[in-house]
Write a structure and sequence with these properties.
- The protein is mainly alpha-helical.
- It folds into 2 domains: about 80 residues, no CATH class; about 70 residues.
- The chain contains 11 helices and 2 strands.
- Helix 1 runs antiparallel to helix 4.
- It starts with a helix and ends in a 5-residue tail after the last helix.
Length: about 190
């Protein structure tokens, strides 16, 4: 069974001499590539074939080169492609937070900023920003990230992601107030 990822890599690195054609069982095409490799025409054709493999689905590849049979390799290449995609998404979301933190001079005070600031500057979802605003209208002040997770239902990993953008200012009217908030005491705790 031939693998699309292997074919892509062979095409990219050794396509000018037709190694990917030999791998795919097209020996005559491979020989032509090898004979004419000095003209650089096979390298140009292999470059476009590489993009063809990139945009080809596993199903198309299997129907063309594996007589329509799928393989375990298909799931392995799909697995690695999904892993790489998730890593790239995570990198760009972290980069976005870093760029936003460089754009704003001061951190957003989570206890005093508007819902628009929470949505457009901190990047919170509108329903999370509305939860924060609703809790603040009840007189509650957020003291840390775990308050956002417990009371505003914001996922913990997302809170950690926006941490460089926000600050928790502690106001004087609560100076004598215990660090454990009254609403936190009402939350059911898991055993």
């Amino acid at each position: 069974m031939k693998d699309r990822t292997t074919a892509m890599l062979l095409c990219f690195f050794l396509g000018s001499i037709g190694i990917h054609k030999f791998y795919l069982g097209k020996k005559n095409d491979g020989i032509i590539y090898l004979v004419f490799c000095w003209t650089y025409i096979p390298a140009i054709v292999a470059f476009f074939e590489f993009f063809g493999f990139c945009f080809m689905s596993d199903r198309e590849f299997n129907s063309k080169f594996n007589n329509g049979h799928s393989s375990e390799i298909e799931s392995a290449s799909s697995y690695w492609l999904s892993r790489i995609t998730s890593i790239v998404k995570e990198f760009f979301s972290q980069t976005e937070v870093k760029v936003r933190s460089n754009v704003i001079k001061n951190k957003l005070d989570i206890n005093n900023c508007s819902t628009n600031d929470l949505v457009y500057i901190a990047g919170l979802l509108p329903n999370h920003a509305e939860n924060i605003a609703l809790i603040r209208t009840e007189g509650y002040q957020f003291l840390g990230l775990e308050d956002l997770t417990d009371l505003a239902d914001i996922p913990e990993d997302y809170c950690r992601k926006i941490e460089p953008l926000i600050a928790f200012t502690y106001y004087e009217k609560f100076a004598n107030f215990d660090a454990t908030n009254w609403q936190r005491a009402l939350l059911p705790r898991e055993a």
